[in-house]
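Batch manifest, entry 17 of 40.
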Amino acid sequence: MASHPGAPLEALLVLLVTTTGTVVAALTADALSHLAVHGRFLNGPELRHALRASLGSLVTVVAPLALLGASALGAWPVTPALWISAAVLLATLVTVAAIAIRGVTVPWWQRTLFLTALGIAGLIVVWLQTLAHG
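Output type: structure tokens
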């Protein structure tokens, strides 16, 4: 994780591009799954619902944007901002998944195993990104 003068702005740009790609991928997955299940494309109200659901995920990047924005303004170096952002995103992922599966009737140990595996997968992604951007 480089810490040169432009690094916070570069990190913000990467976050914005990644976030945009994620929202588009979620919307595309929603549209494709609807097409596969119902044999037709989304109509107006369904498309608006899919857009709201996809755009709702943007709330997860508020903390990383704030941290990287503060870093770009010189409040602290980019490296701690990136690490804290990664931790916040990982915690958000596991928390949202826990909320999503709370009503599912599976034994507690399966729920725990799933959430642990999800957390580990997230840590692997952070590790791979660290290797890639070293």
